[in-house]
Design goal:
- This protein is an alpha+beta fold and about 500 residues long.
- It has a domain at about 120-360 and about 425-505: Cytochrome p450 (Orthogonal Bundle).
- It is built from 22 helices and 11 strands.
- The strands form 4 sheets. A 4-stranded mixed sheet has the order 1-2-7-4, with helices on both faces. The chain has a 3-stranded antiparallel sheet with strand order 3-11-8. It has a two-stranded antiparallel sheet with strand order 5-6.
- It is globular and about 85 Å long.
- The structure holds protoporphyrin IX containing FE.
- InterPro entries: Cyt_P450, Cyt_P450_E_grp-I, Cyt_P450_sf, Cytochrome_P450_monoxygenase.
- One of its GO terms (molecular function) is oxidoreductase activity, acting on paired donors, with incorporation or reduction of molecular oxygen.
């Protein structure tokens, strides 16, 4: 009996659906096998964590997308301990040794540094922050670092102080009315960054205009979050590759023209100075040694993005006010060097950064082929310390959710605190190059604000801590405060004598 073979090109009813069905069944089998492998046969399957996180990347992506992953991972650490598996290929650590093994220089031990993943940045791959090549990173870092050293920042003290003085003057004009302190501090920090990077402030304080570059920096960080999300899935990876193929160097059109414009203005100012460079003492003056123009541009963007998201601390502490107002006789005594020695102020900053780290997520690293040894185990995957989880880990901190600066001052009640589980500025060759500047700025802001004003939190901001949401950094809501100028004893005394004198004359 002969079978009727359909002619080529003629569709037989039922063939297409059954093909689709076969593909679907195959996909399900593949997925199921993958999930089973992830759960029971994967090298990370021995690490604790919820099964739903270990099975696929979906759960982790869901929380990243909602902007609450750092919170969730913190909860998981409180439940499962210092190492948590929160994705098929990702481990999070709250552990002092993990800092050394993941971020520290590996030269002394294995000699193989953990890697950063290459990422699309607003300008190109060549920049400092996401540079996957240790050699290229090292070269850029060596040129940038001197400007951010203790000496580099001390040399800029006059400018730093000037910006804070402008802030104080602006706030004095508004005293008694509610002001959004975050908005004003962001403006001050960005003017300072403008000075540091391009030799001129952006005029944010003067014109009372929030600089566009801060919005754009925020947008870039959000884009980075999405890239991290995409790269966990095959389709996402393909999409990222396609985007990189067609827009390899210019993802965000704002930054290239912003940098070009500012460098041009800078060049013009230099030319007006006769080209001797005396006026423009900025990072670009230092970076021009040994860098290509394109590298200068991308490093400038790195600094704008990394430095843009600034610092907010609990400003209304009695003990801090006492330390600041009783240590100094006048505001001009508040030099960077003097503020560095204020124990309580430093403890307040440490405690603020513990509870409210500038970046609540992690900067993950990828182990080398063959794995790296982390906390005694050979790990073949992506790893990181989550800043939020480390600061909020109940087994590491006594009274974990309370703001207690005394824990940084040797108070006996907190002797068992594991202070080494947090490193606000990371450790190792890729730690924060801007930390001296960040600390100097924070000390100046806090000390001079407290010196000048009594501060009262407005009702609408009383739940400020509860309002935050974040992707990689925070979406900070306004922090509304009323500032009242401090009536100084000396000032009050002069006033009293004035009144007395006037009385005597009448
Ligand atoms: C409270 C404020 C700040 C905190 C907590 C902070 C924290 C950090 C951390 C944890 C890293 C390491 C990232 C990694 O592991 O990949 C980092 C890197 C970096 N930070 Fe900061 N930062 C702050 C302010 C600043 C400021 C003001 C600047 C300068 C304008 C800056 C510039 C940078 C740069 C350029 C990098 C990359 C360094 C490299 O890859 O070599 N940061 N920061």
């Amino acid at each position: 009996m002969s079978m009727a073979v359909p002619p080529v090109g003629i569709q037989v009813p039922g063939t297409f659906p059954s093909l689709a069905l076969n593909v679907l069944v195959l996909a399900c089998v593949f997925l199921l096998t993958k999930i089973l492998h992830n759960l029971y046969f994967h090298p990370l399957s021995k690490y604790p964590g919820p099964k739903i996180f270990a099975a696929t990347s979906l759960a982790s992506s869901y929380y990243l997308f909602r902007g609450t992953r750092a919170y969730r991972i913190s909860e998981l650490h409180n439940r499962y301990g210092p190492i948590v598996r929160f994705g098929p290929n990702e481990l999070s650590y709250v552990n002092e040794q993990a800092w050394k093994d993941i971020y520290g220089s590996q030269k002394a031990s294995t000699g193989i540094q953990l890697k950063k993943k290459a990422r699309v940045t607003p300008m190109s791959y060549l920049s400092l922050f996401p540079n996957p090549s240790d050699e290229a990173h090292n070269r850029l870092r060596k040129v940038v670092a001197p400007g951010f050293s203790e000496k580099g920042i001390r040399d800029r003290e006059t400018l730093l102080q000037q910006h804070v003085t402008s802030l104080i003057l602006k706030l004095s004009e508004k005293s008694g009315n509610p002001v959004d302190l975050i908005w004003w501090m962001d403006c001050t920090a960005s003017d300072n960054l403008g000075d540091m990077v391009f030799g001129q402030p952006f005029g944010a304080l003067e014109t009372e205009t929030f600089p566009e570059v801060l919005h754009q920096a925020d947008a870039s960080l959000k884009e980075l979050a999405f890239n991290i999300l995409y790269e966990q899935y095959l389709l996402g990876k393909i999409w990222t590759k396609i985007r990189e193929r067609f827009t390899p160097r210019r993802v965000n059109s704002f930054f290239p023209s912003f940098v070009a414009e500012n460098l041009q203005k800078r060049g013009k100012r230099l030319a007006e100075q006769g080209g001797n460079g005396a006026e423009v003492n900025d990072i670009n003056a230092g970076t021009s040694r040994g860098l290509q123009p394109e590298e200068i541009a991308v490093v400038s963007v790195d600094l704008m993005i990394a430095g843009a998201d600034t610092i907010i601390t609990a400003l209304s502490l009695q003990a801090l006010s006492h330390e600041i107002r009783s240590t100094f006789e006048s505001e001009s005594d508040m030099t960077l060097a003097a503020l560095q020695n204020l124990k309580y102020l430093n403890a307040v900053l440490n405690e603020s950064l513990r509870l409210f780290p500038a970046a609540p997520e992690t900067t993950r690293r990828v182990t080398n082929p063959g794995g790296n040894v982390i906390c005694g185990d050979l790990i073949p995957t992506a790893v990181g310390v989550y800043y939020w989880a480390a600061g909020h880990n109940a087994s590491s901190w006594h009274k974990v959710e309370s703001f207690i600066p005394e824990r940084w001052l040797g108070d006996d009640k907190f002797k068992d605190d594991a202070r080494g589980v947090v490193n606000h500025f990371a450790v190792g060759p890729r730690n924060c190059v801007g930390q001296t500047l960040a600390l100097a700025q924070m000390r100046l802001f806090v000390a001079r604000l407290i010196w000048n004003f009594d501060m009262e939190l407005c009702d609408e901001s009383k739940k400020w801590w509860g309002m935050r949401t974040f992707v990689l950094t925070y979406a900070k809501p306004p922090l509304m405060m009323k500032l009242k100028p401090v009536v100084r004893f000396l000032f009050a005394k002069t006033l009293a004598f004035g009144v007395l004198y006037a009385d005597l004359l009448t």
